[in-house]
Amino acid sequence: MESTIEIRWSGDPSKIKRAIQSIEPDDPDAFNVDFIHHESSIEAIITVKATSLSTAKATADDILACLGAATVAGDVLED
Q: Going along the chain, which residue ranges are E strands?
């Protein structure tokens, strides 16, 4: 049975795109990213599909941890 987890992240377009670009090379087959452009922000929709819920959750957890680290690193570099 396939499991799907969707992560949505809205905010500053440059920060979100930079963070997403930093994690895409890790495992391009593990997730898909789509963007919705709003007036002054962007929404990233990250879709994780896996053969089991535990695998999907582990992948989503990894993605969130990496996005968090990439965001903090980007903020430090900007300062």
A: 3-11, 31-37, 42-50
